[in-house]
Design goal:
The structure is a homodimer of 297-residue chains. Chain A has 2 domains: 94 residues, 3-Layer(aba) Sandwich (Rossmann fold), CATH 3.40.50.720; 177 residues, NAD(P)-binding Rossmann-like Domain (Rossmann fold), CATH 3.40.50. The first copy, chain A, has 12 helices and 12 strands. In chain A, α10 runs parallel beside α11. Chains A, B: It comes from Fraxinus pennsylvanica. Chains A, B: InterPro entries: D-isomer_2-hydroxyacid_DH, D-isomer_DH_CS1, D-isomer_DH_NAD-bd, NAD(P)-bd_dom_sf.
Chain lengths: 297, 297
């Protein structure tokens, strides 16, 4: 029978530390599987303020996992001097100070394209919902109005509509593929013409909006795309136009979007993202032609 | 100057009569265009009961236009002895007593496939809505719950799901084409294997339901299909299964459907049609996993 020659190490002594910023719920659910390999540091479960927690616990931590809702600013990075890797569970990187990461030699990895199909499904679902009044009709029936008020007003037809994709990346391509099956005609705007695509390219966003019945925002949020969808673009989309945003809230100037919807300068919106989540402008709450989606987890 | 040689005829003397049964609203909107050619008889605008109206006004009427909500029974036909043609603005014919029409030599025309693409769009919209909780999430945000209760529960992924189409007619084909673009796998049940299609054929509805994550009802309502979707079929679809009906309400045994939804024997439903429209079972009103659509006009 073998005799232990040394005491077993303390449970966390040799485990790699990972600091969790924004607490992706999948990690919490799976932590039994990972806990034999990693020691998770969770500032959100500590009573200390973030900076004090990081100073006290995470000075040697080399890896962080974060979600899109957690801003990784230069100041946060300052409190993590040993950090070498950030993994975000989001596709977008706009919550991470990338130039500060570059300066400090921190690698950043994101979720790549794994959500693209699901985001595209939601975009198409919101388009059909607004055009065919699915949420509004559902509410009409469930509040008992059908027998009292008679039939509900017809919506719009999807087939034959001109759809403008803003940002023909992996999400934009998936949205286009689905909408082609509905008989929509696809065109797009992006920084450069995509040579893999035969869709009509517009070299500026105004032209795309003007040519489109439905504008679907699928681009990354960067300093170049922040508030790219402003009042002029919305007016170019026009009174019959529908806008759908599955990118980031701040790609649209939200105040102008609300104004255009209230003033009926555009026909409707499907919004999966907002500038100041979880806060959604209250003016949208009463609009049947606007379908909004919260963050899911 | 030409002198009239005879009095002008009374406005309706030589116009063909058309009796409108169920009052399709598009005819009311366009009646200026048609009124120079046809005299429209509208029993719904008369104070007389239908049979008395038809006896008094429509004994020579050869043509009727009707909608799906108006039952053209043998008794109605009895009051229209000169009738030669019924045009229904619906695709379905289940509201017309076809054997009585055959006996009386009355031709029947329907709307053919003109609605198929739009019905398919609605079917796909309801699938995405239920699976991705679009209506429920919209209500969650618009009642101000997001900042108070935090994120909303995740829905299900559409990609990779097994979709069973019940009735691979023009609507079924359009539904299948769209869902293929979402990465779904298609199989179907119909009276006979369709040689134009490479989708997997099931020769009985139980096998299809058992093999499917999502069952989409697209068949005509006939004596053979009435209550074809019974408790056994719903149990075969199972706890994770979603049912969508864009055909006619009575293809499903509605009482059993409600029971299965309340008892969580199936995961959810998207319902465009009901057995006793405009009456929708109240048990469905509180279920977030059920999306219902009223009649539109």
């Amino acid at each position: 029978m073998a005799v232990p020659t040394q005491k077993p190490s303390s449970p966390h002594q040799k485990l790699e530390q990972i600091v969790i910023l924004g607490l992706p719920s999948f990690l919490k659910r799976q932590d039994k599987e990972f806990s034999s390999k990693f020691q998770f540091l969770s500032p959100s479960e500590s009573n200390l303020p973030l900076d004090q927690f990081l100073e006290a616990e995470a000075q040697n931590t080399q890896a962080a996992v974060c979600s899109a809702g957690f801003k990784i600013s230069a100041e946060v990075l300052h409190h993590l001097p040993s950090l070498r890797l950030i993994v975000t569970v989001s596709a977008g990187l706009n919550h991470i100070d990338l130039s500060e990461c570059r300066k400090r030699g921190i690698s950043v990895a994101n979720a790549g394209n794994i959500y693209s199909a699901d985001v595209a499904d939601l975009a198409v679902g919101m388009i059909i919902d607004v055009m065919r009044k699915i949420s509004a009709g559902n509410r009409f029936v469930k509040t008992g109005l059908w027998p009292k008020q008679g039939n509900f007003p017809l919506g719009s037809k999807l087939g034959g509509k001109q759809v403008g994709i803003v940002g023909l990346g992996s999400i934009g391509v998936e949205v286009a593929k689905r909408l082609e099956a509905f008989g929509c005609k696809i065109s797009y705007y992006s920084r450069k013409k995509k040579h893999f695509s035969s869709y009509t390219f517009h070299s500026n966003i105004h032209d795309l909006a003007f040519a489109s019945d439905i504008l679907v925002i699928c681009c990354a949020l960067t300093e170049q795309t922040r508030h790219m969808i402003n009042r002029e673009v919305l007016l170019a989309l026009g009174k019959e136009g529908l806008i759908v945003n599955v990118a980031r809230g701040a790609v649209i100037d939200e105040k102008e979007l609300v104004r255009c919807l209230v003033q009926q300068k555009i026909a409707g919106a499907g919004l999966d993202v907002f500038e100041h989540e979880p806060h959604v402008p209250r003016e949208l709450f009463g609009l049947d032609n606007v379908v909004v989606s919260p963050l899911l987890s």
